[in-house]
Amino acid sequence: MNEVVIRPLRADAERTVRTVLEAAERTLNRKPNATMEEIAAAAGVARTTVHRRFATREALITAMATWASQQLADAVEQARPETTPPLVALYQATANVLRVKLSWGFAMNAALAPGNEADRIQAGVVERCDQLFARLQQTGALRADVDPIWARRVYYALLHEVCQDLSKRGADADTDARATQIVDTLLRGVGNPNTQL
To answer: Is residue 51 part of a domain?
Structure first.
């Protein structure tokens, strides 16, 4: 039986791939129907270089989504969600994730075939976030009567809305301030606590 051996890319080849992925993100974010030639020009490489690394536009977009998903997973891990106090980890993970989502907006929203590597990585991120939200509840940051999975979904929706807002404005984001806003909104809500129901 023939075994396929996948060798890691040389450092220069890895830099070229990263350059192409970053150029593709910038180009496709601005012009979603951009051609491989336009992406190559934005990366400052020959069209053949892009085609050698990515046989099709779909393969390039899949690679972008996988790269972005890994950056997202790394952003969550950098917050050390298992060992850092949960509120600190939540704030740090939020700021880290915002930076990734704002940098890789096209790739993070790309529609891919089910069962791809990006989906697997994203599932791991969801699992880590669910663990963090369980810790938040254990320490009393979330009320005991709140489903932590539901709270995580609300948190994801807040992240999404902030990213959409910032993308539309085209403004540079103070991710730390936006992270504070997201976490405060999640934990305190937006209503007046003195309102009678």
So the answer is: yes
CB 40 within 8 A of CB 49: yes
Q: Are residues 25 and 115 in the same domain?
A: no
Residues 49 and 72 in one domain: no
- Sequence-separated (6 or more) residues with CB below 8 Å from residue 188: none
* Closest C-alpha to 138, from 181, 82, 191: 82
Q: CB-side exposure of 50: number of CA atoms within 13 Å?
A: 26
**Domain-located, residue 1:** no
Domain that holds residue 20: 9-55
Q: What is d(CA 21, CA 14) in angstroms, rounded to the nearest whole number?
A: 11
Write 52-55 long-range contacts (CB < 8 A, 24+).
53/16, 53/17, 53/20, 54/20
pTM assigned to the model: 0.83
pLDDT tens digits, 177-187: 889 999 999 98
92, 20: one domain: no
Tokens 């400052």 found at = 44
Residue 68 identity: A
- Burial letters for 165-185: b for 16+ Cβ neighbours within 10 Å, e otherwise? ebbeeeeebebeebbeebbee
Distance of alpha carbon 112 from alpha carbon 24, whole angstroms: 16
